[in-house]
Specification:
By secondary structure, the protein is of the alpha/beta class. The chain has a single domain, classed as 3-Layer(aba) Sandwich (Alpha/beta knot). It contains five helices and ten strands. The protein has helices at about 30-40, 80-95, 115-120, 160-165, 180-195, and strands at about 1-10, 40, 45, 50-55, 65-70, 100-105, 105-110, 125-135, 145-150, 170-175. The strands form two sheets. The chain has an eight-stranded mixed β-sheet with strand order 6-7-5-4-1-9-8-10, with helices on both faces. A hairpin with an 8-residue loop joins strand 4 and strand 5. S-adenosylmethionine binds next to strand 8 and helix 5. S-adenosylmethionine binds near residues 131, 153, 178 and 181.
Length: about 200
């Protein structure tokens, strides 16, 4: 199982953002929507072994929320940014604020903050913080069940990074090039696909 967890530092967690203004009113919800799409979608369907977790820290009510999407269960998702953001917004608006709720098949919303989410994912996977200055991912064997943690337009803060590293995370790099979050996710998926023996380059 592959899992991507993206920390949305300013991402709106109440659902009252405009689909026409995902970067502004959504607090860079564009990044989270594109990251979810890059994590889950293939050309003709969804990656069945992949999950994406979006930690939304920028609630107007000061309450963080976490959206989980499970590739093998998801329905009614489309890969474009606007549709993805609208599914996230619907989940946020319908959420009553306690425990976890399935908003549409395969999409779950809860009141987990980053520490709660990291605690949960560390129970069934190894943790890797994807960061430009980490160790080269190509030089390490990636465990089958891994959660890759990424920042949004900002890297993890020193406090967030320290919580993650305290849980035994390793810091790994996809090279020195500074990529957008969704690009780093696409490249990580590519690296994992190739190392799993996906194709020899012939079509
Ligand atoms: C837009 S970047 C954040 C700011 C960026 N570090 C910079 O200096 O411009 C978004 C996230 O993508 C991931 N990322 C980007 N490039 C990467 C790389 N070369 N290797 C590993 N992760 C990367 C990191 O998790 C990063 O926090």
């Amino acid at each position: 199982m592959r899992r991507f967890l993206v920390v949305g530092h300013r991402a709106d967690s109440t659902g009252y953002f405009k689909l026409d203004d995902l970067p502004g009113s959504g607090g860079r919800m564009d990044i989270l929507a594109m990251s979810a799409s890059a994590a889950l979608f293939l050309s003709h369907g969804l990656r069945q072994d992949t999950e994406v977790w979006l930690v939304l820290n920028g609630g107007r009510d000061g309450k963080p929320r976490t959206i989980r999407m499970i590739g093998s269960e998801a329905r009614y998702l489309f890969p474009d940014e606007r549709n993805m953001a609208s599914m996230i917004r619907n989940a946020l608006i319908r959420y009553k604020g306690k425990g976890e709720m399935e908003s549409t098949p395969g999409m779950y919303i809860s009141d987990m903050d980053l520490k709660d989410a990291l605690r949960r994912v560390s129970q069934d996977s190894e943790l890797i913080y994807l960061k430009e200055d980490g160790d080269d991912v190509r030089k390490t064997e990636i465990p089958e069940n891994t959660t890759f943690v990424l920042g949004d337009s900002e890297d993890l803060s020193p406090a967030e990074e320290s919580s993650l590293m305290t849980m035994g995370a390793k810091k790994m790099s996809l090279g020195k090039t500074h990529m957008h979050t969704w690009q780093a996710i696409a490249v990580m998926n590519y690296e994992l696909d190739r190392s799993a023996g996906d194709g020899d380059g012939t079509l």
